[in-house]
Amino acid sequence: MDAIDVALRRIRGWFIVWFAIQSVAGLAAAVYVVEWLRHAPVIRRAMQGTTPDVTLIAGIAVVALLLGLALLVLEALSHRRPWARLVMLVIAWITAVGAGIDLLTIPGAAALLGSRLDLAAGQWSLLQATTMVTKSVDLVFWSWVIYTLQARQDVRDAFIPLRRMDDSESDGR
Fold this sequence. Notes:
This protein is mainly alpha-helical and 173 residues long. It has helices spanning 3-38, 52-78, 82-114, 121-151, 153-158, 167-170. The chain is 79% helix and 0% strand.
């Protein structure tokens, strides 16, 4: 197994770890927020049909669908398909930049929204801490993916299709 295969397998393995962490944190946050909104005076009526159980089941279905699609892209990446590298880089850049912006703006959002929302200090701190951890994991993981797929010359070169000679070149013309 060459160094490029090792790098691509690491991306796949760490992607699954990253995805699991994000999925569990996201589902827990969604269930928590839905439960909180069901008891909020202003929105209680709109949330009548929504329960944490429905949110959890829908969330698991979406997570399974997204994981399936991601595994297809990762499989194409392991076969060194240029389109898969491009898809991963687009996702990586969007997620890394978004995570960086979120990490910079979380303190401001806490100051702005914390007093507006009817959340106890402990609830807001938990939500803020969860966001900080997940965004930090996003930034670290996707920055590493960008480095591996874009900055490493050997990996980049592995995705360049071999130049195919047409008949005129092969005949020496």
